[in-house]
Amino acid sequence: MNVIVNVILAVQMLAALAMIGLILIQHGKGADMGAAFGSGSSGSLFGASGSANFLSRTTAVLAAVFFVSTLALAYFGNARPASSGSVLETPAAVVPAGAPASEAPAAPAVPASGAAQIPTK
């Protein structure tokens, strides 16, 4: 399960970086008017209007991949087994600096209600 999450995370990161690059390469709507009068990228690699279709379609595909990978990561992140209580109700075990983790002190018993944990003066 951890391998699947790592693969999906890598796909999401690559899709995000590719989307950023493609969006920065694209020119705005106002740049088409300049190309019509001869100043612009009419002699570019994709032709006068070919780059807009190619880049916009590729950006749309990458956006869909990013969206699906985000949903998959949310699903796998939420699929963990539910714990018996809140994280705030379980005290952290304090381990001395030189001691190994196996010698951690046992956690004290936690009262059932939160009201019993309020310190009194």
UniProtKB/TrEMBL annotation:
UniProt keyword annotation of NADP present: no
Keywords: Cell membrane, Membrane, Protein transport, Translocation, Transmembrane, Transmembrane helix, Transport
Transmembrane segments: 54-76
Main localization category: membrane
Protein topology in the membrane: Multi-pass membrane protein
Record's keyword annotation contains Disulfide bond: no
Similarity section: Belongs to the SecG family.
Family annotation (NCBIfam families): secG
The protein's name: Protein-export membrane protein SecG
